[in-house]
C-alpha cells in the first residue's frame, strides 16, 4: 500500500519478535508505506535474516536513545508492557502497546497521563475491533436489525490439551483471562459502553497448567445480559457469537481469518485477505420471517489500525482505539479477578 501523502513515513521500532511481533505487526507495517521499520529489539539471537532491508536488530536502550525513531511498538510479554512503554514515552516516543496496555488500572492511568504530559500518542493494539465477524455484528447492532437487545454471548474456545511452557502459562500475567478476554471485552465496550457489574468464574482445567485456561464472565447492563467464555479443552465449539433482541437473533460461527493468513504468509495486499469462508457467514433470524438469512461479513481489516494511527500522529485525528476503552477493559479484568476470589458480583 503506497504512501499517498507527501508526509515522510514514520520511523518505527518493533520491540519483541514473538508471535505478535513477527506475525502481526511486522506484515502490517510492511504493507503500509506510511511506516518505515528501522529497528527490531528482541532477546532472540540473531533475527537479522527475517528482517526487511534497512532494518537492524538493536537493544531496547539503542532504540529509545535513537532520536530518529518516532514510534515504538511494544509486542513483548504482558508483564513488561508498562515499564517499556513508560521508558519509551519518557524518551519522547509515540507508543503502541500490545493488549493489555498494563496489568492494572493504576499503571494504565500512569501511562495515559505521561503521554499527555509528553504530548505523545499512546494507544493499545486492539486489532480485534477490525475482525470481519465483529464488523458484521457492529453493523447489525447499530442498524437495530434485532431491535432491543437482551442477550449477547461470545466465546473463544481452543483445544490445547498440552500445556506450552512459556510466559503465557504464568498465573500472574498470562492465561486465558489476560490473553483472550481483552479482545472480547473491548468489542463489548465498543458496542454497549461500560457495564454496571461483573461476575467471573475462572478456573484451571488442565492438570499441568499453572495459569487459568477457562473462564466465564457475565457483564450486566440494564435489561441486557452479556456473557463471554473460553476453554482450552473444547474440541468442537458451538457458535462464536449468539445475539438475541426483541426483533430477532444473529448466530455466527467461525473465526476471523486474518491472524492465520498473516502467519501463513498471506499479505494484506492479497485480495483474499480478511475474507471469511461462506460456511462462516452469520445467520440472521427476524420476527417477520421464518427463513434463515445468510449475512456475509465485511472483509476484516487489521491494516485500519495503522492507517488510523498515522492520521493520529501526523494529523491529530482520533486514536485507532480510544484509551478509555483500554483503561475500562483493564478495570473489568481487575473486577473479574475480585469476583472470582470472592465469588460475588462486583459493582463497577
Explain the overall architecture.
The termini are far apart. The protein has a 9-stranded mixed sheet. A 6-stranded parallel sheet has the order 3-2-1-4-5-6, with helices on both faces. Helix 4 (105-118) packs antiparallel against helix 9 (323-342). The protein has helices at residues 19-30, 60-65, 81-90, 105-118, 132-142, 175-192, 258-263, 303-315, 323-342; strands at residues 10-15, 35-41, 56-57, 71-74, 94-98, 122-125, 149-157, 197-203, 214-221, 224-231, 241-245, 248-252, 282-286, 293-295, 346-347. It is an alpha/beta fold. The mean pLDDT is 95. The longest helix is centred in the C-terminal third of the chain and has 20 residues, at 323-342. It is built from 9 helices and 15 strands. The protein folds into 2 domains: 10-125, 3-Layer(aba) Sandwich (Rossmann fold), CATH 3.40.50; 129-303 and 332-347, Dihydrodipicolinate Reductase, domain 2.
Brief sketch in words of this structure:
The protein has 348 residues and is α/β, with parallel strands linked by helices.
CATH topology type of the largest domain: Dihydrodipicolinate Reductase, domain 2
Helix coverage percent: 25-40%
The share of residues in extended strands comes to: 15-25%
Order of helices and strands: EHEEHEHEHEHEHEEEEEHEEHHE
**Number of DSSP helical runs:** 9
Largest sheet: number of strands, sense, barrel closure = 9 strands, mixed
What is the topology?
Layout: E1 10-15, H1 19-30, E2 35-41, E3 56-57, H2 60-65, E4 71-74, H3 81-90, E5 94-98, H4 105-118, E6 122-125, H5 132-142, E7 149-157, H6 175-192, E8 197-203, E9 214-221, E10 224-231, E11 241-245, E12 248-252, H7 258-263, E13 282-286, E14 293-295, H8 303-315, H9 323-342, E15 346-347
Parallel strand pairs: 1-2, 1-4, 2-3, 4-5, 5-6, 7-10
Antiparallel strand pairs: 7-11, 8-9, 8-15, 9-10, 11-12, 12-13, 13-14
Helix pairs in contact: 3-4, 4-9, 6-9
Amino acid at each position: 500500500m503506497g504512501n499517498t501523502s507527501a508526509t515522510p513515513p514514520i520511523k518505527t521500532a518493533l520491540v519483541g519478535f514473538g508471535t505478535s511481533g513477527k506475525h502481526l505487526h511486522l506484515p502490517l507495517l510492511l504493507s503500509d508505506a506510511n511506516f518505515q521499520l528501522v529497528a527490531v529489539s528482541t532477546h532472540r539471537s540473531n533475527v537479522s535474516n527475517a528482517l526487511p532491508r534497512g532494518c537492524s536488530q538493536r537493544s531496547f536502550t539503542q532504540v529509545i536513545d535513537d532520536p530518529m525513531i518516532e514510534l515504538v511498538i511494544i509486542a513483548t510479554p504482558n508483564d513488561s508492557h508498562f515499564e517499556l512503554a513508560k521508558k519509551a514515552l519518557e524518551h519522547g516516543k509515540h507508543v503502541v502497546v500490545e493488549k493489555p496496555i498494563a496489568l492494572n488500572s493504576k499503571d494504565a492511568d500512569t501511562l495515559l497521563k505521561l503521554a499527555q504530559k509528553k504530548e505523545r500518542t499512546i494507544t493499545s493494539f486492539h486489532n480485534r475491533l477490525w475482525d470481519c465477524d465483529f464488523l458484521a455484528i457492529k453493523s447489525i447492532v447499530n442498524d437495530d436489525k434485532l431491535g432491543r437487545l437482551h442477550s449477547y454471548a461470545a466465546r473463544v474456545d481452543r483445544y490445547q490439551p498440552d500445556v506450552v511452557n512459556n510466559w503465557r502459562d504464568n498465573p500472574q500475567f498470562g492465561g486465558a483471562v489476560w490473553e483472550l478476554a481483552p479482545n472480547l471485552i473491548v468489542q463489548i465496550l465498543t458496542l454497549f459502553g461500560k457495564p454496571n457489574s461483573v461476575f467471573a468464574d475462572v478456573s484451571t482445567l488442565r492438570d499441568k497448567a499453572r495459569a487459568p485456561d477457562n473462564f466465564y464472565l457475565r457483564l450486566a447492563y440494564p435489561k441486557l445480559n452479556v456473557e463471554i467464555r473460553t476453554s482450552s479443552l473444547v474440541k468442537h465449539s458451538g457458535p462464536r457469537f449468539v445475539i438475541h433482541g426483541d426483533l430477532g437473533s444473529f448466530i455466527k460461527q467461525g473465526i476471523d481469518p486474518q491472524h492465520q493468513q498473516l502467519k501463513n504468509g498471506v499479505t494484506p495486499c492479497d485480495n483474499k485477505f480478511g475474507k471469511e469462508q461462506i460456511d462462516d457467514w452469520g445467520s440472521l433470524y427476524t420476527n417477520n420471517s421464518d427463513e434463515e438469512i445468510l449475512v456475509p461479513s465485511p472483509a476484516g481489516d487489521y491494516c485500519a489500525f495503522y492507517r488510523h494511527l498515522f492520521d493520529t500522529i501526523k494529523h491529530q485525528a482520533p486514536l485507532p482505539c480510544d484509551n478509555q476503552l483500554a483503561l475500562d477493559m483493564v478495570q473489568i479484568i481487575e473486577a473479574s479477578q475480585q469476583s472470582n476470589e470472592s465469588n460475588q458480583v462486583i459493582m463497577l
